[in-house]
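TODO from last week: model X-Pro aminopeptidase.
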Amino acid sequence: MFQTFDVLSSPQDGPPRLARLRAELKRRKLSGFIIPRADEYQNEYIPASSDRLRWLTGFTGSAGTAIVMAESAALVTDGRYVLQASRQVDQASFEVVHSADVTLEAWIGKHLPKKGILGIDPWLHTANQIALLKKVVEEAGGRLEKLASNPLDAIWQDRPAPPQAKIMLHPLSLAGEDVGHKLARVRDALGLLNASHCVLTQTDAIAWLFNIRGGDVAHAPLPLAFALLPRKGKVQLFIDPQKLDVDVRKALKPTTELFPPAAFADKLAQLAQGSTGILVDPASAAAAIADIISDAGGKLIAAADPVHPMKAPKNSAELAGTRAAHRRDGTALVHFLHWFDQEAPKGKIDEIAAAIALEKFRAASGELRDISFPTIAGAGPNGAIIHYRPTVETNRLLDRDSLFLVDSGGQYQDGTTDVTRTLAVGTPSSEMRRRYTLVLKGMIAISRAVFPAGTSGTHLDALARQFLWREGLDYDHGTGHGVGSYLSVHEGPQRISKAPSAVLEPGMIISNEPGFYKPGAYGIRLENLLVVTPLEVPTDGERAMMGFETLTLAPFDRHCIDARLLDIEERAWLDAYHARVLREIGPTLSVTLRNWLAKACCRL
């Protein structure tokens, strides 16, 4: 199994650890300290050795920040995780704060004492984040201090060892572009900015650039590494040498010089002394990196990482691979849905059993390298916890006449998948069916969208929410995130969200996942992955137009659909989608499963 259902933390651990941290802060004469869920690479998924937030608070979500003062402490997180955080942390020790109600900065402004000193680890915050914190702290009459060492590390006695996963080569047949061509494109971008070098800190960008994959973080094939990329000459790549075998070293030798990660700061400082300009992304690189350059007298160029806009649009080889991965994944999903249809009504299936069954169906292909994130398998009220992960403590039987939300994905060498279906156990209520159908209508609206070149996901987000909004409903997460090509299941810069986002370009893969959540009752989310696709300009049209190709292949649960709420075009889209699922997945199945799928995909 690629996932565990063990309890990774306990609220009871929080109070004694918080007391020890406060003692350390007092010893250092600090009024407070910020603990983000971050590592020095600013990864979304971090190794256990860097998960300071979980160790201190018990919170296991992928987005959150703790702030500790002498007399108060808080965990600030977004709408995806508020319910989860309330269960996982000791609320007598940590106030759980919804970031939409009170931002981290607002909480600091209220609780930092006058002339207080707020400490931060500059390796765990970006330059942009620190600039905002500095402003808030100074307005509160305090001082922000960048620390040379992390006070939490001083008290974390049982800290896990850093990861040592081996590096693998990603074949050119799947990457679609060799390292030399990728480097040339990055160097052209540096030339436009008059930068002599670029600091690369994001591990998915480094993995993509050098056509390598790793396993240093759970569920994403990422190697922990830094890189210093010059406009001319070899790249300095900082990666643990124990992770590299002979073949990987040979492949990297023409383009790189290899160094251990411990050499990064010194090499960067040496480089800064003679450079004409080093590009660092203030939104993604640790602030400590910019400090090293400035302290060495180097010229800092604050600009966006040039790799991400190159990585986001997938080339023809990457798209061919992801289509193959989704067909394979679709077969596994149909096996699971058939199993669920047979077993769930018996009343003996729980969340963990369903998650295990789904992973086994994926693994049966022989191609599964990992799951792309821990399976979200929420029965009844657990489905209303947006990023719920079942554990042996929270595991729940699937009740009759309820909903079961399952959000899952696979990592295959040719592609990354992410799919959500909400399934009926027994007979759903009329309210459940109505709200499921409103979510489905929003999903179809995104799937059918036609938009001019230059459109961003921000412009499309309301298409998914409009039907919920009409009934006074909404959901507290974005509608879509970018997805990598056998990389991170969450990647930028593309997304569909109320927040500002990048322009959607052909080849970008993005999720389409509206939802609705009724706390204490049920959750609904439906998700397909899409790829941005150019469309033919209509007759008499004047602008280049784009739309989406759906990648995910799995039927929706007909028991949840109130067909009366769908208009003719929505029905036509759904019928066409189900016909395609049957056409592409049906031939991979046994006769029994193919007959089941035919019923699941019949016309409304």
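Done. The two ends are 37 Å apart (CA to CA).
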